[in-house]
């Protein structure tokens, strides 16, 4: 019901916009007024400079709406957001100082499945040192927050650091405390930072929720729910309702920079774009310049290649994996065959109850009827039957279940899509139901077709911990290579994003209404907020580390093996490739003490951006000052001091330099270990790095050469690793081999 309402509300909103006026919200980038005024522009200067671009006359008698400047930015871009007509933008283009304008995009939250809810303890014991993220401020850009949820209690929390300048919106005062130290709202139709969607409450509590004892629903596993950095402070910038507007995201990031956040966490995004008109890349650059680490979800476009978003090299781009927890449910067929699936809803059903099983498509005109759209199951023949439905389509899983329930069905088997392989999702349901793989689903359909009286029984087994295959890359997790910058390996890292329990804005448990509602949802949104928490832990214990140092520590110490000590698998249960996992799965304990780091001073991005062949104006709009790329050294992407490598290799060798900084033991000697990608020779000089003091920087060169005998093309992967007694510092290598002429 709720879900349907959301869909209609969005449609209604689109149509009302187009009816009311021909104005759209544009993001407008202009040159810095520096070129006019010689001193650093003040906010007032900027605002009047921006106003000078706005249409002077109110000539639009036909339209109800006047052009209007909505947001004046001063950190994230030199520019503003304004309601304008296409014609007014054309006029604006003629003014000196104008660079570029585009109608704002609507970005989406990076959860996949419809919200589910529930129970149990966050499995984070292994995450923690004696470090709880004290003194660090995480800014979340999301759907708002539920301030009275016990996850946001400030018990045991120190007051915010003195540098904090943020605040709570006027009608949220009294809601903030030493945990939730800031809350602001940006969507125009939103009155307060209160979360009406659940997503922001979930991501906030994952990153830095306080301890909540006894979180449980349906009597399932009881435990303590807690965020990754329980002593970190939270600031909510509500930039989304159910969708996120670019103008609002920029406005939130603009203020968060002034407010003094240490980490920005953005579990949202759109498709890949060049960085000069990707608002998150633009905002994140300004944040990085101020020492703020920006952690973003990689997107839920997997498992297809090149689906990654939020891939600028100054962003930590986070993919998603499973955790070792299943919410197990099974279905047994009349022929005694048993299939395993997952479900959040685990009602107590009598174990002996076999029911008739029905595949609605068998008698329907087309296969689409298995998608279970509203009204498609009014037929009385579904009464007291278990119905097979396909995942996907427009209707959420909970919505499909409702349709089956309304038709008198007693259960539902939800069959995954083929691309999702062995991935299963624990969803909420309104009737006994479970999610099974596509292959299992096909077997069940064959069984139905093969017998005159098919029957099945659904049973629930609750929470099972200890899946040795975990972490497995989630099917939905977006994959590289990056479009915007193929020479930077993305994603950077993967972290927990499947079946993640965290706080929720409302209890969806019909039986028991409780203030401390919890919910399980999936998406790179969830893995992003985990990594934001990890970054807060590192920031707390290493105050002077730059964002790129924190990122390097996370990447070079990542796990590449799963709990069973074999290489991490993907949704097909095949070894996951480098464009699915990047550096691997986050290992927070090791990240806290990485030995060496690959730092990237902010100035290094300039030769990198010029090397992308952007125009001076385009580079200028990212770095926010005038740029002449003709006077700047250009570097290829792979020359950026990144902790990983992504190379496109033809017949000519390529050599890159890296600089590592010693943050381990003063006197230490590292030797290199190379695992060359098949068909490629990797040569590192020197092969030993001897450090005599802390913070010492040493360089090495790495040369990639195609092997004489190699005619293969495609993707090859390997790594190089610097090791000493105590540390091992690993950089993954992706090589795209260009086809060569064979003999
Ligand atoms: C918040 O304040 C605005 C005006 O500042 C008011 O219109 C709105 O009703 C208030 N919202 C709530 C939930 O109190
Ligand atoms: C399909 O329709 C036929 C004939 O109307 C009927 O005999 C059969 O039971 C139906 N099968 C299902 C699975 O509903
Ligand atoms: C059902 O079985 C028949 C033959 O036994 C076969 O021709 C048909 O394709 C099957 N249908 C489905 C949907 O599997
Ligand atoms: C930029 O242009 C140079 C010269 O044409 C070319 O060699 C290089 O590959 C280009 N870089 C990118 C990232 O397209």
UniProtKB/TrEMBL annotation:
Domain Inhibitor I9: 25-110
Gene3D superfamilies: 2.60.40.2310, 3.50.30.30, Peptidase S8 propeptide/proteinase inhibitor I9, Peptidase S8/S53 domain
Gene designation per UniProt: LOC107027317
Keyword terms of this UniProt record: Hydrolase, Protease, Serine protease, Signal
Every Subtilisin-like protease fibronectin type-III domain range: 639-735
Family: Belongs to the peptidase S8 family.
Organism lineage: Eukaryota, Viridiplantae, Streptophyta, Embryophyta, Tracheophyta
A Pfam match: Inhibitor_I9
Name of the protein in question: Subtilisin-like protease SBT1.7
Active site as annotated: 142 (charge relay system), 199 (charge relay system), 525 (charge relay system)
Residue span, PA domain: 376-444
Signal peptide location: 1-18
Limits of the Peptidase S8/S53 domain: 133-562
């Amino acid at each position: 019901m709720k879900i349907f309402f959301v869909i209609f509300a969005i449609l209604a909103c689109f149509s009302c916009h187009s009816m009311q006026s021909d104005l759209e919200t544009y993001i407008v980038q202009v040159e810095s007024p520096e070129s006019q005024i010689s001193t650093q522009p003040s906010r007032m200067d900027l605002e009047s400079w921006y106003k000078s671009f706005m249409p002077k006359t109110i000539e639009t008698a036909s339209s109800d709406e006047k052009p209007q400047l909505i947001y004046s930015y001063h950190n994230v871009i030199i520019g503003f957001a304004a309601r304008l007509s296409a014609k007014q933008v054309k006029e604006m283009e003629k003014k000196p100082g104008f660079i570029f304008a585009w109608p704002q995009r609507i970005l989406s939250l990076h959860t996949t499945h419809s919200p589910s809810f529930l129970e149990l303890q966050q499995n984070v014991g292994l995450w923690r040192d004696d470090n709880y993220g004290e003194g660090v401020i995480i800014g979340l850009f999301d759907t708002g927050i539920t301030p009275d949820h016990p996850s946001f209690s400030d018990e045991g929390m120190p007051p915010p650091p003195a540098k904090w300048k943020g605040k709570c919106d006027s009608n949220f005062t009294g809601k903030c405390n030493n945990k939730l130290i800031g809350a602001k709202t940006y969507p125009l139709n939103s009155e307060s930072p209160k979360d009406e969607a659940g997503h922001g409450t979930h991501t906030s509590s994952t990153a830095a929720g306080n301890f909540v004892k006894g979180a449980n629903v349906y009597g399932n596993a009881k435990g303590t729910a807690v965020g990754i950095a329980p002593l970190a402070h939270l600031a909510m910038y509500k930039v989304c309702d159910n969708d996120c507007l670019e103008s609002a995201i920029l406005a939130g990031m603009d203020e968060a920079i002034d407010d003094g956040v240490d980490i920005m966490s953005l579990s949202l995004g759109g498709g890949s774009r060049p960085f000069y008109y990707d608002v998150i890349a633009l905002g994140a650059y300004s944040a990085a310049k101020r020492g703020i680490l920006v952690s973003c979800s990689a997107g839920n476009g997997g498992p297809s290649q090149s689906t990654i978003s939020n891939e600028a090299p100054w962003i930590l781009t986070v993919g998603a994996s499973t955790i070792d927890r299943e919410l197990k449910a099974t279905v047994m067929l009349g022929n005694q065959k048993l299939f395993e699936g997952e479900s959040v809803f685990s009602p107590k059903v009598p174990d002996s109850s076999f029911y008739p099983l029905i595949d609605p498509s068998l008698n329907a005109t087309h296969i689409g009827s298995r998608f279970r759209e509203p009204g498609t199951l009014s037929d009385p023949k579904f009464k007291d039957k278990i119905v097979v439905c396909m995942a996907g389509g427009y209707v959420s899983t909970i919505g499909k279940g409702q349709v089956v329930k309304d038709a008198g069905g007693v259960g539902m088997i939800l069959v995954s899509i083929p691309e999702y392989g062995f991935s299963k999702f624990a969803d909420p349901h309104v009737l006994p139901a479970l999610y099974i793989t596509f292959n299992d689903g096909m077997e069940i359909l064959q069984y139905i077709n093969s017998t005159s009286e098919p029957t099945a029984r659904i049973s629930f087994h609750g929470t099972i911990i200890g899946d040795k295959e975990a972490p497995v890359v989630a099917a939905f997790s977006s994959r590289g290579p990056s479009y915007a910058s193929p020479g930077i390996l993305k994603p950077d890292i993967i972290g927990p994003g499947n079946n993640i329990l965290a706080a929720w804005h409302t209890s969806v448990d019909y039986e028991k209404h409780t203030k401390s509602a919890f919910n399980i949802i999936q998406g790179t949104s969830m893995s992003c907020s985990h990594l934001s928490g990890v970054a807060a832990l590192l920031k707390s214990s290493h105050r002077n580390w730059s964002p790129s140092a924190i990122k390097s520590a996370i990447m070079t110490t990542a796990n590449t093996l799963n709990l069973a000590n074999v290489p991490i698998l993907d949704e097909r249960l095949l070894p996951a490739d480098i464009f699915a996992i990047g550096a691997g799965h986050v290992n927070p304990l090791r990240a806290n003490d990485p030995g060496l780091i690959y730092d990237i001073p902010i100035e290094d991005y300039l030769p990198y951006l010029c090397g992308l062949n952007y125009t001076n104006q385009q580079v200028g709009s990212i770095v926010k000052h005038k740029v002449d790329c003709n006077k700047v050294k250009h570097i290829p992407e792979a020359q950026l001091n990144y902790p990983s490598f992504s190379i496109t290799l033809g017949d000519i060798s390529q050599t890159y330099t890296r600089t590592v900084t010693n943050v381990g033991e003063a006197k230490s000697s590292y030797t290199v270990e190379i695992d060359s990608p098949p068909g490629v020779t990797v040569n590192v000089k020197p092969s030993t790095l001897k450090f005599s003091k802390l913070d010492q920087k040493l360089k090495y060169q790495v040369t990639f050469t195609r092997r004489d005998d190699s005619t293969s093309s495609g993707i090859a992967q390997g790594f190089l690793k610097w090791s000493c007694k105590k540390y091992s510092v690993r950089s993954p290598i992706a090589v795209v081999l260009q086809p060569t002429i064979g003999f």
